[in-house]
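so the lab meeting is tmrw and i was supposed to have these ready like two days ago... anyway. pasting both below. for each one the top line is the aa sequence and the line under it is the structure tokens. i havent really looked at them closely yet so no promises
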Amino acid sequence: MDSESEKEISRRSLLKKIGTGAAIAWAAPVLSSFGAKAYGSPKVPCGCKGGVGEGCSVGGDDCFGQVDCSPIGNFCTCLRTTEDTCFCHQPQSCAGLQLCTASTDCPAGWSCTFSCCAGGPFCVPPCTGGGKYRQRLKGRSTVGVRSGSG
């Protein structure tokens, strides 16, 4: 009878062991990711970290290689400029954007960039930091094609 009682485990003990195992399973990838680069979403307040190929235009793709540079409460991405630098911009609908050949063709503070808009480069505004501004985009935009109302 003693051998049977040694094999028995209380519900509480079982749940503790399951919880410990789950915590270890969750913690392993999280802890091993410290120091790893998150190419999809580094959070740099209104600034692009790294140059072309790292901070923007990742993989040589001006549309799908955009990196998140959003400040809290906003959505912004880094675009490659005609000067071959990265620029943290406020996403815009492609319709009505001003064509350019250099950032000097754009309004003050704006930059001449390559994006998901065909036929560019176009002038785009800088990211507006600190605000709770999120523009609803419809149709083709600097960050791709969006659908929805707004």
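ok protien two:
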Amino acid sequence: MKVKFIEKASPEQINWRRNDNPNKLIVGKIYEVEKWDEGSWHTHVTLKGIKGTFNSVSFQHTGEIK
């Protein structure tokens, strides 16, 4: 699965469930997902080759599944 990084995260989004800060990523860039951990109230995204776990609200599915 691939996602596009669509927006920088607010401090609240970063602190929610101990997400890592995604603001080092490039807005508009497509990233490959290593893990998509969907919970009942939040979703954590881990990207291939990028250290950290991020809040899914900063990403948009590209529709491409690998």
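from a quick look at the 2nd one: The chain has one domain: 2-61. Helices lie at 11-15. will dig more after coffe
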